[in-house]
Structures
1.
Amino acid sequence: MAYEDRVDPVVGVNFMLRVNAVIDLPLRKVHGFQEEFEYETIQQGGSNEYVEIRQKPISRVKTFQVEYYVGKEYIDTLALGTSFSIPLLLMISKKAGNFDFKNITRIYTFTGCTVISRSYGELDAERAELVVETATIAYERMIPVTFM
């Protein structure tokens, strides 16, 4: 029987997006992303009662959203319409602010990425809040990698 170790689960509070393999963008929040395939069922005819399941071509764009704070030394790395030839890396670390490979517990690699929408946080003079921007990124493929 296979045994999967769940004693030390990955904590998802220390995460960062590496853009163009150079720029590290600390994130406030990452909205859920998922990988799924679409299937169609085909009923065979005659006296045969079998149902076949076949994978359909993808009809929806796969996306994920990232929220991040705007800093003083702001470089717009996720400009609207930007397509990335280098994969984006969403890294989860055991320690806050420490994203070297001995502290990283999981990396989600997104390939074929394009920024398809941007939204800007609410500005309210009555409440002091940090400026937040949200980018929606479309991707072709996601590859999760777990480190020991």
2.
Amino acid sequence: MEWSVSTRKRTSLRVLFVDDESSIAELMRDELPRMGHLATICQSPGSAIEAAGKNVFDAAIVDLRMPGGSGWDVIDFLREHSPETACVISTGHGDRDAAIRAIRMGAYDFLPKPVSLFEISNVLDRIAEKKALQNRAIALETRLQRAEGRSDLVGSSAPMQRVQKLIDRIAPTDSAVLILGETGTGKEMVARRIHDQSDRRNEPFVAVNCGAIPENLVESELFGHRRGAFTGADSNRTGLFEVANGGTLFLDEFGELDRAMQVKLLRFLESGEIRRVGDNEPAHVDVRIVCATNRELQQMVQRGQFREDLYFRINTFEIYLPPLRERLEDIPSLALHLIARHLKRDSVPETILPPETIRLLQAHSWPGNIR
């Protein structure tokens, strides 16, 4: 095996490497982490199948011929139990028939021995890029599903100018952000504006309402799960943390998370690692966290309902969004914006709203705010 490999930054994958040759196994035990990946090294089909039964892998590099079994057994197991794992066949006994069989079985690639570290690095880079594109597609689908009925951040009042100045200051950083405000004040739009003005703008923005997920499914939704982790887990699931990898995860109403989930969120903020439900191996993800709530978190901390260490960790920057009744001067521009959107136009003339209509709108208390 040749020793040349680039050390540029990569997306981290969970890699199962299977080869009975001790020298190769030990080499990859060192080299895969140097490439930025989490490695599980096995030297027999049985131990590989056991590892695959306990963990979820993004990629598997499998030697075909080993004492005590065949690499095909590992591939068969992965196809049945972890179809999203990209399988790469590697063998010194490979021929055209083996390559054809590998492709027919859905293998991602076929690498004849001797395999260079560069070839392994390259194929893992391609798998990582494919995974990133899949995550972006999921994020885009989520974004499109949430787009209808969404209000843009509109308003030039003094409170909204302060909000925009905070966004301008916060967005270039990579710190966690806490957005406070009543329901309907536009917390998700502020989170999206932070994302769009950050260096992560071309990566996924994933929004989730923590209060809308059944308590017993929150962990699976956020972190994912492996097949068989619980009743009804018929297949592996990618969690929203992994979908948002490289981008921003917006946790709306995160004050609804129970204490157990608060601990898991704190662990991620401290380590950058998550663990799928039923998985033994952690995975590193690069995600900026933006949280929002309409609850009084400080009071919840004092009552023991919310972890103080998590509160301070997530509250690196705080943005307060005022209710509509505290920025009545924004109502005309908001009304014009909503009319234009309803008519599917870029803008409408200000004269479309008579002064008496504006006065009536400004006299209303707007308990639901902009929603």
3.
Amino acid sequence: MNTEPYLIITSLTVLFYSLITIALVWGLNRGRRRPRIQRTEPLVSVLVAVRNEQENIIPLLTNLTQLDYPAHKLQILIVDDKSTDRTVDIVATFQRSHENVQLVRTLQTSTTLNGKANALQQAMPHATGEIIFLTDADCQVPQNWIRSHLSWYYGRVGMVGGFTLLSRRGQELDTFSRLQATDWLYLLAAGAGAAGLRRPLSVFGNNLSMRKKAFLDVNGYAGAGFSLIEDFALMRTMVQRGWRVLLPADPALVVQSAPEKDWQTFLQQRKRWAIGGRQVSFLARIFLAVAVAGRFIPLLPLIFGNIPAAGAALAAVFLCDYLLLHKAAGSLHRQDMLANFFSYELFTFASSLIFGPVLLFANSVAWKGRVYKSTAMVE
């Protein structure tokens, strides 16, 4: 009996998609081991690169100064990347009443690092902590954020990432924001699964910590080279130097951020990720290729009029996505984020179809008032 070639292609794609999903779910579970009890309180530094964040800076500083950690062992460095609004003035006023808050000014721009990476690279000599923490100005971290991150350090662990969610339980969000929140959960679930397999693919720089020793070992962002996703580039360089990277689905590590406000800023975000993501490893390229193919493979039998085969492929892909999301949501006690699963699947298909060609051929992106290409800042 001859099998139509399109059915073979469809079956193999769904098979690979399923096997990758099973591996990621297993890795996600493997990476959830109970962290050790942290018995010491090392010096730590929290670095936040800011550029024109006058609306967010007070909530951020208030949040960071209320962390459950001794103030004399907690250094907070706000690194200004040439802001043109009132950000610097606000920080300068705030630090007068908080001795552990310091303002660091970026002295010069760089064509070999993006703005954020350049700011953090210049600020690192000011950091006195043994463990360095990174977050963004539009984020809110949990009160036990420092201690929770520290509990994951052992042996050759050089970097620990955590999940960043775009919604709180019970928070009222518009449809676009809810879909972005689910998308971030899916992306981080995949990243956590890969890290659990000791093949880390990604971390998010708004919820990240690292040993300063590991940072210096790779010469930081300068050693990682130019990238529009500097956190990924730094992670990759640390892995190459033999450091372990963890991304556990630990609810104690969860940081809250904000979704993009409109489709234009959403597209710019994805362009930045797409351009920066071209530097990923061969293994990551395979993963991404299968992930993209899985989104569209149900269309292949549909083109040939085989509706049952298209339905079966679609159901298999949906099931795989649901299993990964369900595992991550359960680990974080956020099962409520599964409520819009089917609309999320439609969102990913539509956005991939509409934006896919743009992202594939994008060669520049506007970010924080600057224009970047894949290898350098251009203006």
4.
Amino acid sequence: MVLFEDETILRELPPLRCCWAMRGERAVVPITGNNARRCVFGVLNPKTGTRLCSVRHRNRAEDFRSFLHEVRARYRRWPIFMILDQASSHTAKKTQVEA
């Protein structure tokens, strides 16, 4: 079973790239003191198009290993070949040992 894996961080308030203001006036940007974020891990089976996603509070090696357990539970009947990037959560020593 070949799977492609990636993750992304979603923020409650995305970074402000640009805004409009009248010439000579400052732009008012409403923000809060707390910018909640979540990390979404996902795998895609390119053959069938099925995917598995999991939301975590952080993108740490232990979060990635927990996601790997979910993937193994989902595809327990097949050997898994997962295509990954070089994110630090993927290359951590504990992750490499557990994989």
